[in-house]
Specification:
The complex is a heterodimer of chains A (109) and B (118). Chain A is an all-beta fold and 109 residues long. Chain A is built from no helices and nine strands. In chain B, the strands form two sheets. In chain B, strands 2, 4, 5, 6, 9, 10 and 11 form a seven-stranded mixed sheet that branches. Chain B has a four-stranded antiparallel sheet with strand order 1-3-8-7, with no helix packed on it. Classes of the chains: A mainly beta (109), B mainly beta (118).
Chain lengths: 109, 118
């Protein structure tokens, strides 16, 4: 699976959009971009995934660049409960999930 | 849907004893289950992958005789930490892979088990 690179930490004000970037310049054509988050002392929670097109669900939006070398997870209206570690993972259809260090997102009041 | 449970959520055991952790997929059949370990302030590290009815595949550096994995059914996998030592103290997380009301194969994570070996 392709390696991903994320900033170590980010801050966001409550109510504002949180934009979390991820670089995956070596991603192959059949690898999806997955986003999970982990709130302290809990198991990871699935957020969203995509292949080429932008995706949106009730939790977030995923914007994937046309060359697929990077993506951005958008939490449109961050709340304090969105404070977590966010993991961006490139994975094939039945591949293993390899977790990097992720981005620690802190949402401030 | 797609709920995965783990039991127990926390366990404290004495050094030298064995501990069993259960992972269940509650509303779907998991063809594959994964076991991860997470040390404080570190990321999740995959320990092993198991398919129902077959032997688990362990990641490099994980002792298969110490971490026994059984995947007896499509809804249950167990991880037994044998002869536990303080360095085995960690957060153990399972995930279950399968199709749960969606068209694509996904992994769903359990809430984790905090193991403390004294």
């Amino acid at each position: 699976d392709a390696k991903t690179t994320q900033p170590t930490s980010m801050d966001c004000a409550e109510g504002r959009a949180a934009n979390l970037p991820c670089n995956h310049s070596t991603i192959s054509g059949n690898e999806y971009v997955y986003w999970y988050r982990q709130i302290h002392s809990q198991g990871p929670q699935y957020i969203i995934h995509g292949l080429k097109n932008n995706e949106t669900n009730e939790m977030a939006s995923l914007i994937i660049t046309e060359d697929r070398k990077s993506s951005t997870l958008i939490l449109p209206h961050a709340t304090l409960r969105d404070t977590a570690v966010y993991y961006c993972i490139a994975r094939g259809s039945y591949g293993k999930l390899t977790f990097g260090q992720g981005t620690i997102l802190t949402v401030h009041p | 849907g797609a709920v995965v449970s783990q039991h127990p959520s926390r366990v404290i055991c004495k050094s030298g004893t064995s501990v069993k952790i259960e992972c269940r997929s509650l509303d779907f059949q998991a063809t594959t289950m994964f076991w991860y370990r997470q040390f404080p302030k570190q990321s999740l590290m995959l320990m092993a992958t198991s398919n129902e009815g077959s032997k688990a595949t362990y990641e490099q550096g994980v002792e298969k005789d110490k971490f026994l994995i059984n995947h007896a059914s499509l809804t249950l996998s167990t991880l037994t930490v044998t002869s536990a030592h303080p360095e085995d103290s960690s957060f153990y997380i399972c995930s279950a892979g399968g199709v749960a009301g969606a068209s694509s194969y996904e992994q769903y994570f359990g809430p984790g088990t905090r193991l403390t070996v004294t």
